[in-house]
């Protein structure tokens, strides 16, 4: 069986990989029928030894994913994430043209994994995302009421880690991410699914930076989005991937 993960970084304590879109990180009550997970493939990259997921990526999101090779490292890095000292960068394609840069400070209600809890009121948590617009384009296709349609590539820098935060925040400012079935615009999603033969979520985790939980040294891991993502970005003439620092 081919391992779908790409190894990006490994040392005595950490394993960092690129996860393709469509792969769950670990078992979920929402997808009980699934049998393949990033966790098991990361274990294979670790010589069959147990690994500890430090954070998560939604199933349709591709990109950089960190595992710890021991429980103490997982605990330390988890605390660093809770303290906001781990810096993440995402790349997204959105509908419309957002401002050149901005900050979305919009609290989000928690979304429980267990569907049995969805009828219960959940707490609202602080949620902050910074963004920067990297490229814009306008295509001569009437998808809604206008004769042409506008899109942008944005870099997203979450300062908190709420469930579906980036997708919900971009919807909140009326620039939903292309391919987002739950928070996006169906007409635009269908157009790109038909044009490129695949309806992926246009959201990729492209970089993570943190102080090593054991050595204290700065660690920066970057990953170019996978081919299916870059193919859709071909609608942006001359677009080149930027540096990843937020």
From TrEMBL:
<dbReference type="Pfam" id="PF00849">
    <property type="entry name" value="PseudoU_synth_2"/>
</dbReference>
<comment type="function">
    <text>Responsible for synthesis of pseudouridine from uracil-65 in transfer RNAs.</text>
</comment>
<dbReference type="GO" id="GO:0008033">
    <property type="term" value="P:tRNA processing"/>
</dbReference>
<dbReference type="InterPro" id="IPR020103">
    <property type="entry name" value="PsdUridine_synth_cat_dom_sf"/>
</dbReference>
<dbReference type="InterPro" id="IPR050188">
    <property type="entry name" value="RluA_PseudoU_synthase"/>
</dbReference>
<keyword id="KW-0819">tRNA processing</keyword>
<dbReference type="InterPro" id="IPR006145">
    <property type="entry name" value="PsdUridine_synth_RsuA/RluA"/>
</dbReference>
<feature type="domain" description="Pseudouridine synthase RsuA/RluA-like">
    <location>
        <begin position="13"/>
        <end position="172"/>
    </location>
</feature>
<dbReference type="GO" id="GO:0000455">
    <property type="term" value="P:enzyme-directed rRNA pseudouridine synthesis"/>
</dbReference>
<protein>
    <recommendedName>
        <fullName>tRNA pseudouridine synthase C</fullName>
        <ecNumber>5.4.99.26</ecNumber>
    </recommendedName>
</protein>
<dbReference type="InterPro" id="IPR006224">
    <property type="entry name" value="PsdUridine_synth_RluA-like_CS"/>
</dbReference>
<keyword id="KW-0413">Isomerase</keyword>
<dbReference type="GO" id="GO:0003723">
    <property type="term" value="F:RNA binding"/>
</dbReference>
<dbReference type="GO" id="GO:0160149">
    <property type="term" value="F:tRNA pseudouridine(65) synthase activity"/>
</dbReference>
């Amino acid at each position: 069986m081919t391992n779908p993960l790409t190894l990006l970084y490994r040392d005595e304590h950490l394993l960092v990989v690129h996860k393709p879109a469509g792969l769950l990180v670990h078992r979920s009550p929402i997808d009980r029928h699934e049998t393949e997970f990033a966790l098991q493939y990361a274990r294979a990259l670790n010589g069959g030894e147990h690994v500890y997921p430090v954070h998560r990526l939604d199933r349709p999101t591709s990109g950089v994913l960190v595992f710890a090779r021991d429980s103490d490292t997982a605990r330390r890095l988890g605390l660093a994430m809770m303290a906001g000292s781990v810096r993440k960068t995402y790349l997204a394609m959105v509908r419309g043209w957002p401002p050149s840069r901005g900050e979305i400070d919009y609290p989000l209600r928690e979304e429980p994994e267990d569907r049995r809890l969805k009828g219960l009121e959940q707490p609202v948590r602080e949620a902050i995302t910074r963004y920067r617009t990297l490229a814009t384009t306008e295509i001569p296709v009437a998808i809604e009421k206008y004769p042409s349609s506008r899109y942008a590539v944005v870099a997203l820098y979450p300062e908190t880690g709420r469930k579906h935060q980036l997708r919900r925040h971009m919807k909140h400012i009326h620039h939903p991410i292309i391919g987002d079935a739950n928070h996006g615009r169906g007409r635009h999603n269908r157009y790109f699914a038909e044009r490129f033969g695949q309806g992926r979520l246009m959201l990729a985790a492209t970089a993570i930076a943190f102080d090593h939980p054991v050595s204290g040294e700065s660690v920066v891991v970057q990953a170019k989005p996978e081919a299916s993502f870059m193919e859709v970005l071909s609608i942006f003439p001359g677009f080149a991937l930027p540096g990843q620092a937020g």
